[in-house]
User: Fold these one by one.
Assistant:
Number 1:
Amino acid sequence: MQTNRAVEILVGMFVAAGIAAFFMLAMKVSNISTFTEKDTYKLKARFDNIGGLKTRSPVRIGGVRIGRVASIEYDDKQLEAVVTISIINGHNRIPDDSTASIFTAGVLGEQYVSLEPGSSDEFFKDGGVIGETQSALVLERMIGKFMMGVGSSNNNKTNNSKKTP
Amino acid sequence: MMNWFQGLGRSSLLLFERTGRAALFQIRIFMGLPSLIRHPGLLVHELYSIGVLSLAIIVISGLTVGMVLGLQMYNTLIDFGSEDSLGPVVALSLVRELGPVLTALLFSGRAGSAVTAEIGLMKATDQLSVMEMMAVDPIKRVVAPRYLAGIISLPLLAAMFSAVGILGSYMVGVGLLGVDDGAFWSQMQDKVSFEGDIVNGVVKSCAFGMVASWIAVFEGYDAVPTTEGVSRATTRTVVHTAFAVLGLDFILTAIMFGDN
């Protein structure tokens, strides 16, 4: 079968376009360019309740993403969740008395770990443990507390109204 | 009543026979693939007629699908005030599902049916028997290049479909509807993982490529060598590929994304 040069060139362009599309997906669309696992250091934080935090959830300082949650484990002895976060090496000046909290982005958004910088002159190193943590706010628990509060204040009111006449 | 049972038995036996023939045919194709190394010209020619000529429909479909997705998703997401996540929604649905599946369906309509008709007509006009008489193996000469060209083309076409679709939704979302440019791309990069989504999408499209080209060459090679037989084989290619791709997609999705 005779394959002329134009056909070969077109096929070459086709394959090149396909590979270019694949590279665009890899570089522009996926996370491969923004974050590689290699140049990071790890910190640990213990939480009573992590809410809906997942591995690969973002870690932020002042709203800027500086890392990701690497793993989540449960410590059977201390009955706490241990969250390991990996932070990009460039951000290695986090005071070692910083606090970690779990917040929710927006009302329906994903949960993330937020670090509040402390005032210490010492910085976290690889394998450091964040001492002060604040657990995730679980909506049901908050609603429960709120309902309790409303219920008791209503009772007080009715009691008062009975007394006054 | 007896006739009905007889018919049932016969058709199920025929079904098993065809399935067995198809599986044996697959093995024969694999045996024929190494000979392509000595004749790369055959493969290049088939890549042209299967891959390059499918480019137009894939690119145009990808663009319109991406634009429509951008428009529809925007209208839904704006109710929640989260129109910034248009990027990840469109990218994930294209890369994970729509890219590989729609490309496979379009591919079977554009290229698979053509391959079936071509091989079927070769059989109907005794070209395949003539090749055998000249000691040319039609599997090596006719079937294997088309099969391999399909497997190579489909992942490339699917990647182009997804990429063009994302550009289309970018044009509509950012250009027309006013989604923030930075948020569109950064949220997309935040949510789409390379190993989890892009690679799995490519694996999917490779699997679809195998199935679609297998069905196309088998239906052609197995066609009843008459005008009517070829036309029925061509129809069967498109229908069976659609079933196979959609069923396989569910299985692959359950394996790949079922546990999160």
Number 2:
Amino acid sequence: MQQTRRRRPIYWLGPLMPVLAVIAALIAGAIMLLLLGVNPLVAYAALIEGAIGSPNAIADTLVKATPLLLVGAGICIAFRGGVINVGGEGQLVLGALSATMIAIYLKDLPGWLLIPLALVFGFIAGAAWGAIPGALKAYLNVNEILTTIMLNAIAIQLMNYLLSGPMMDPVQITQGSFIPQTERFPLAADLPRLVPTRLHAGVILAVIVAILVWLLLWRTTVGFRIRAVGLSPKASRRAGIRVERYSMLALTLSGALAGLAGAVQVLGVNHRMFTDGSAAGFTGSAGFNGIVAALFGQLHPIGTIPASFFFGALIVGANKMQRVTQVPTSMIIALNGLLVIFVVSSEIWRRRLARQKEMEELAATLQPVVAEEEVNPA
Amino acid sequence: MISDLFSPMVIIGILASGIRLATPYLYASIGETFGQLSGVLNLGVEGIMLMGAFSGFYVTYITDNYWLGLLAAILVGAIMGLMMAFISVTLKAEQGISGIGLYLFGLGLSDLLFQVTLGTVKTVSGFPQIHIPILSDIPVIGPIFFQQNLLVYGAYLLVPLATFILNKTTWGLKIKSVGQNPAAADALGVNVTAVRYATVTLGGVLSGIAGASLSIALLNVFQQNLTSGMGFIAVALVYFGGWRPIGALWGSLLFSSVNALQLWIKTLGIPIPSDFATMMPYVLTILALVFAVRKVSQPAALTKIFERGEG
């Protein structure tokens, strides 16, 4: 094989890319603010103060980061496995709905049983909502981006139906106000609070889950196979990996963690489920922002931890920025979009470095199997 | 009651609104067809539609001239199309995720601009209905086909026009060759980058018009997240239609008719929960993707990055 001379890869630049992307997005945001006649320094100062300026602000940031981290850890599994899951919103809603059903229909159970049961059901419901597009993608070759988007819309309608019908708070019906929400869960179903703020135990769970996802992906055979399928389905198939099974598994696990995020959200923050008719009304777009956080964490579950806290801070701080400068919080959505674009665009450099490294690792591991196959063709 | 659904008045109503409501899907999905045939999946259609809808509405509101509004939507669509082309062709970014980024950008920015400039939901007088003389007086058919506004007629004219461009012109052949085998097209002297820039920008323009068709022709209002997922459906319709404009037409009509049916179910108070009625089109799309797509294979180079001298 002809050896072409390559420029020496700049290894330190890889991890720096997200930071550069943030700086670029902040500059773009500053230009937007200037165009709106707002001093960017004042706006950003308000944003920072709103995010980390007091113990309560920090607690709120951590609470907002929790669903992002859970969804983001799942996104790491999906994207590493070569499936693009943009169905986080729907999976989160389904997870929250199932946890809600446990909490209101089995409300007499003691907390030590009720909470784990609700979390497990949230996990399972999200897994089911991820398994559908996973199976369609793996076995029927149906584009998973499109099906997950459609399943988001279906989940929202299901939520609207259940909350304005069978699951509606009986008080809403007797009072005749018909607000589409459930009754408040029993106190036993509340996730324990950590300090006297809104901070709940879900944040610890999310960090543990992220670490478990890291162990899964880099320390187990299943995880190795998921990553192998994501890097090269062809080589994986030649090495005897059942590609379909692992890409379906990646999307299912990704959905499961989004479902868990929904369960944690209702048990830890809202203590009831409600809807304003849209997905974002309940999820706060965590299903999409989780993707942003995972990309920002370089699709590494450990990297996703600080990334989620960063985006949690951005969301919490945006409210303060709106109060101080009257700049609508939707600016943060626009900036998140730009960040995704910047991070994905800068991938061109990072990918070359990382892919080279991983392919070498993969090749080294698959080599014996492939070689054996070539010696003894089946 | 259910029998009301089959009265002539309701059926005409469903068909007429189905034909009207197909307009944004048609513009967006035909635009996306061009991009995908050349090998670029633009998932940001929804964001471009929202920006087109806002800019079209705002300019119409300020100038009271819907033609200027349309022009604004075209320009904004072209700019966002160019952005996507730059991201996916020049920077060679992963197309699915960067499209989601473009969507979030358009969603946030359109709402930001809306809140800063207008603040509350307002209305404009957009493209008026055009009664085509004589034809519009035909009973039943007249109101369905010949009492629509200019953007609706434009959407339907686009179908034969796009079919002609794709099948009978050199440019159309270039587009398809670039989407099937960019390396071969490149070797034959086709400028892959230029073709993809052109198709993705055209897709942006048509998505911008799609958004404007909602805000200054069909609904004449703008509000946060006006398109509520139509852009994503338009992308699905391209698969549904097997990458042919005529296929996109059938898909758009099917989708908009089910939508119209669902509105009538609500209006007539038929005892099907309206949430399930709203769900129907999405379930239908998934089924369509499962069953319709499998017969036609997608452009071979769709979402694949083209590097000169590789492969």
